[in-house]
Amino acid sequence: MTTAPLIEARDLTKTYVTGEPYTAVDGIDFEVRPGEAFGVLGANGAGKSSTMRMIACVSPVTSGTLRILGMDAARDGERIRARLGVVPQDDTLDTELTVRENLLIYGRYFGIPWKALRERCDQLLAFSRLEDKGSQAVSTLSGGMRRRLTIARALINQPEILLLDEPTTGLDPQARHLLWERLFQLKEDGVTLLLTTHYMDEAEQLCDRLVVMDAGKIVAEGSPADLIERHSTREVLELRFAAHERQLMIDKCAEVTERVEVLPDRLVLYTGDGESTLAAVHALGVRPAGAVVRRSTLEDVFLTLTGRSLIE
């Protein structure tokens, strides 16, 4: 297998000029290697979807370079699209057709012969655990089933790269975990995955490497474990106090750890050893109404890098 990147972006920029000019992607560099699951994390408006649309060759690059499968996205869009699978953020299935008909019609866009296409449909229905739903109208499917069908449809042309934009948004926990299983199997089969998500647990489960975007720029890059090590602590201690006590306890808690984050409902202490820090808090005479020690997560990293302010 070649070790050359399948996707390589250098100073990639996307500016929209309708109305007031707006730069959604601001000179980012990254590369995606063969066979890996690569994540793009960011809040709403961070530039994730704009980046994905350029990689899918449906939105032109404003400036910089973007090479996909050894080709230039600006010149070879049609050839690149033939080798990609795309799972959009919103399902675009034909709800009046059956599950199997959605796959068959989409497969014909790629010129797949009927015999091979029917065999491919059978394989994909089994892969997505929809083999007993083939003759049902899409309108009768649950949200999780529709999402699995959308991924199956994106695989009809046996793509080398699968692009997934917020693949599990709106799904219940059971449907999300089943989808994670399917995506993990694809990676094991050698398909390169590129996904955007704002679910931190999803990124930790699925991604070998990822970038965090904020205001159109990449603010961090690495594996989930590397990012946690660099930008957070091994553990986090969360303390809850009555509303009238919280402000009084901030200075005391600051004595036992280097970083204390003040939230409306709790204090968050970043520490290497949560139990030892809790014991030190108690030694100062502080008695929280509730205390939780947990490991540091990618969500802690994300909020440290991008802040907690809501972005619309």
Automatic annotation (TrEMBL):
InterPro entries from the UniProt entry: AAA+_ATPase (IPR003593), ABC_transporter-like_ATP-bd (IPR003439), ABC_transporter-like_CS (IPR017871), ABC_transporter_ATP-binding (IPR050763), P-loop_NTPase (IPR027417)
Entry keyword annotation includes Nucleus: no
A GO molecular-function descriptor: ATP binding
Keyword Transport attached: yes
Membrane topology, from the record: Peripheral membrane protein
Places the protein is found: Cell membrane
Keywords of this entry: Antibiotic resistance, ATP-binding, Nucleotide-binding, Transport
Predominant location: membrane
Pfam families named in the record: ABC_tran
ABC transporter domain span: 7-240
Family designation: Belongs to the ABC transporter superfamily.
Protein name: ABC transporter ATP-binding protein
Species per Swiss-Prot/TrEMBL record: Dactylosporangium cerinum
